[in-house]
Amino acid sequence: MRRALIPLCCLLACGGSVEDEGPEPGEELPGGATTVHDTTRNAFTLVARNLQGERRDAFFVGNSLFNRNWVTAPSSTEGLDGLGPTFNASSCAACHFKDGRGKPPTEPGEKSLSLLFRLSIPGQDAHGAPLEDPVYGGQLQPLAILGVPAEGSMALSYTSREGSYADGTPWSLEAPHYTLQNLAFGPPHPELMVSPRVAPVMIGLGLLEAIPEASLEALADPDDRNGDGISGRINHVWDVEHRQARVGRFGWKANQPSLKHQNAGAFRGDLGITSDLFPTNDCPPAQSACMKAPHGGEPELDARKLEQVTFYTRMLAVPARREADAPDVLRGRKLFRDVGCASCHVPRHETGTVDDAPELSGQVIYPYTDLLLHDMGPELADHRPDFEATGSEWRTPPLWGIGLVQTVNRHTRFLHDGRARSLEEAILWHGGEAEPSRERFRHLSTDERAALLRFLESL
Amino acid sequence: MTKQGWLALMTGALFLTSCGEDKKAETVDPLAESRARPVIQNYAALTSANYAEVVRQAHSLQEAIEAFVANPTDATMAAARAAWIEARVSYGQSEAYRFYGGPIDNEDTGPEGQINAWPLDEAYIDGVEENYDAGIINATEEYPELTQELIASLNERDGETNIASGYHAIEFLLWGQDVSETGPGNRPPTDFVSGEETTRTNADRRRQYLSLVTKQLVEDLESVEAQWKPTQGTYGQAFGAESPKAAVLKILTGLGSLSGAELAGERMTVAYDNKDQEDEHSCFSDNTHADLYNNALGIQNVYLGRYGSVSGPGLSSLVAEVNPALDQKMKERLQASLDAIRAIPVPFDQAILGADNSPGRQKVKAAIDALRAQTDTLVEVATALGITLNLE
């Protein structure tokens, strides 16, 4: 983080005299030439606009795999069997519905489908990865195929956190609490650490992958040398495909080095589908029925299908902004910067050259993220380290498309565990390095807060 | 330029139009009210006629299915299957009216997702080979009572292939899994017979499910038909009065989306590439070839301005006015797609198998290419009509 606080404060103090700027050219097309124009429920499901001809075919094929339900092996549906033995869902789209955002269960009896729980115990393996729980593995799988016990489930409750804006307007946030229940294999390790993770929106991932590492290095400020109170750290994580440590950029803790890696990890963890990258199921020794269950091939996901799904996830387009030039949106955009949001939610990037994807190369994009880890304070902390990420660090999530989540997924639950019930609540939960920004937001007038939120909704 | 400047120019243009002798020298407004209005109103009329036929055939299907569940025999089952195949003819053509948020797939109220959703995970509804206890029908504890509301609430729940209702749910119940290389699924009627003859448990619930899901389909289709009726306050009436540019944009968006992303992409390329019958549109009945044909026919209908006995000015007449060669090319492309689809050997699930140079795969590929070319020409047509068509 290079920008100093002093000029920011100055801007705030003399805000009235600063001319409002118009939109930057191209700002309304956050995905560059991949950007699509759709504001319906399908806004996150579309193929990159500049992907043309036969290259589009591969997208549709990957899409079908993303939606398809995997079934128990053995089955007549060859190539799509091997679900589980334990799993969270039977298709990618179950959690990433319409390629959109997941949420915690909100109705009584609703399954926790798009909110999953990572499990680990203190310590690291030889490559720095968290150590899995010896009884329940690296992830809680609440479902299982016939004849195999499911691991258990998670009960959720909330307590209120009251607060108020500087102008006296009160708010009430809901802090989640998680309790493991129905555990099939007795107590987990006594020092078990649990991290809730909600399914993120799938748009623009190929573009994020195409941001050069050097750009992220340039944004990183691990020791806060510029003294702005914001560090910004790269998570170096183990890449099982290339057998080396690499810059992590996907996942809530930037613990995934590439989309292919992320997808193969999700196939194993969420669906119980093995691949060349992760050839064994998440069946700890205590779970004998899980270990003995029939599988659907070795691996269950062949290399071609993994490539097809990965191509799909790279090529999901980013929708264009709505009303990017409306006066209150522009005012909100200025406040977004002045308050300090843009310090981590870095608006603009340029992608590098991607050998096999000219569509993603050399694009000016507006994802509003630095893909770096930041300390978000004790309230948001999961207290579970993940490679170099501490228990209170999270990766800045991209904000593009965030204003369409309600349209696509019919909810407005935000943050890593979906605790925030609105964009406003999501801002109010920001702590740690983001606390000064949160405080500045707290001191805005009703009008200014509304303008900032209008800006977010235009993304 | 000032507003007054534009006005002066426009007045000049009007003047030229009214007194110009050399018509070729003028800039023709491709969507002039006098020509475009009849096209838009004819579109609304043929849409209304098409949905009326859809509902008529759905009622016939419902009658046949009620006769079948009242007395499940080979004969009543065959009649129900025939009624389903027949019902697909008009519905397939009506898919040309999708993809622009009209009554069929309006963002909030459109029932398309519970009418024609696919591909369908059969084990979500009923038992399948190696897992006869699967599905909502056999989940007697979780869902002790089957109701229309329950089925509607389970449709697309927790996954995009968790399809509980619509044509393809009925298709699966009437045919069962297709494990045959030469023909469709072959579920015996005794799956629906209770007592000693039964071949599957929960036959009573299977009958009930089939009956409920058909009733829901009829109601959903009736709701769409009602909105296209040419009566006061309907969507159809409002559509007929829309500005030419807005209405023609919708019409072309529907045609282009069905032709490209849907038909060439999801309905053909995916199956072609995966070589998996699970990815064909009507995989239980082996009716995919007819579905594809009727979809393409629906596109041609709209371009030419006809459906059944309804016939009037179509987009073709507008294009012919500004670019006769393009109109000719469009018509040829539409017919070429229909011919290419018709050339695919039946059943489709066998045509997609084998090496890329096998006769079946070559025909499928040729049809995909024809639809792609047709989609490109639709974009040209839009441009010629002064419309930017952003197909996703």
Automatic annotation (TrEMBL), chain A:
Protein name: Thiol oxidoreductase
Alphabetized Pfam families for the sequence: DHOR
Gene Ontology molecular-function annotations: cytochrome-c peroxidase activity; electron transfer activity; heme binding; metal ion binding
Keyword rRNA-binding belongs to the record: no
UniProt keyword S-adenosyl-L-methionine present: no
Domain named Cytochrome c: residues: 327-459
Alphabetical list of PROSITE patterns matching this protein: CYTC (PS51007)
InterPro entries reported in the protein's UniProt record: Cyt_c-like_dom, Cyt_c-like_dom_sf, Cytochrome_c_Peroxidase/MauG, DHOR
Keywords: Heme, Iron, Metal-binding
Automatic annotation (TrEMBL), chain B:
KW Cell wall biogenesis/degradation (keyword) present: no
Residue ranges of every copy of the Imelysin-like domain listed in the record: 49-378
Main location class: other
UniProt subcellular location: Cell envelope
PROSITE patterns, alphabetized: PROKAR_LIPOPROTEIN
Top-level taxon of origin: Bacteria
Alphabetical list of InterPro entries matching this protein: Imelysin-like (IPR018976), Imelysin_sf (IPR038352)
GO CC terms: cell envelope
Keywords: Signal
Region annotated Disordered, chain positions: 181-201
Name of the protein: Iron-regulated protein A
Lineage: Bacteria, Pseudomonadati, Myxococcota, Myxococcia, Myxococcales
